[in-house]
Structure prediction request, 383 residues.
Amino acid sequence: MGRKPSPLTRGSSFHPSILFSAEDPGTRPQFVRIQFELGEKLNLFELTRALVDIESVTNNEEAVASFLLGLLTDLTARSGGAVERCPVEANRFNVFAHWGVPLVTLSTHMDTVPPFFASREDPEFIWGRGSADAKGIIASMIAAAEKLLAAGAGNFGLLFVVGEERNSAGALAAARDPRGSRFLINGEPTDNKLVLAAKGILRYEIEATGRLAHSAYPELGESAIDKLLDALQEIRKIPLPDDKLMGRTTLNIGVISGGRAPNVISDSARAEISFRTVDDAETLRQAVTRAVASRAAAKEAFSVPPMRFTSFDGLESAVVSYTTDVPAFASAWGQPFLIGPGSIHVAHTLEERVPKKELLEAAEIYKKMVAQLLTGAAEAARP
Prediction:
């Protein structure tokens, strides 16, 4: 009699809801471990949908992290590896699985942007929040790990982190706890093209204060909104740096708020802005300070420098305008590479989706990259 197929290897009857049970009506579903046997073909599409259907907006990654911890506990137990729950902060943790000393680590993030919406699929795509950014990538990395293990490979790891979409909290925590990895293959939606350069980000909170007054007598007040608008207009006039490879720095005014009523002179107003940077941004910082001058206060909220990557033989390359966890890892997890299935153009949108073909291709790409890097490391270690 043949082996009973596991939930991840069954056909279309599988649905992520079988992975959960609620203790009481209305409570958050609790994780139930699932098992699959090493050597059976992992259904990559079903795993992607299972991950998408677990809501994990930034700061709420516990359920999906628990799902992956249980899944990788089973995989490592059957294949001679180990898995760890790596605390980041209360109710938030990274998941790290490894087989031997992880000379090469495959990594991406578990969190998503809001709003959550569940998965669906058609013959070409898997849809849903996180399908491209980055739960399909997680599934492809796990599939690659299964392929590597079936081929007898070792000395590699899987690292799935929290918080990339906000402040790279998980990557920063991992950087403080390196495990000897010499190469880090980070996953983001790049259409399966190897990234040669990625822009950085510089984020500011701009705050203006004023004095309340009746709007019929504006001379008695001082409008914080007027000050903020003037400051933003000056910021928009700043000459933005260019780079031959990455192109031009860009500015986005993402949030504006303030005031109390249409017939009241406002006493407070604020904005959140971000630059996608191509250099160290020191000149840009000075320009922002001059632009706001006495109109408002500019507080730097977050910054990540741009990154340049090395090429990898046999892979098509690209340049991207977004930032990633890679700068937060610094060099703690080794020389970085950036590649993954899906398009950034649909990430963070209500049309988010990932091509099934690219998920399959990514699993093969990750497998080949890990195998080639391991071979190179072994050859370099020979006397």
In short: The first strand starts at residue 20 and ends at 21. Confidence is low (pLDDT under 50) at residues 1-41. Residues 175 and 331 are 8 Å apart (CA to CA).
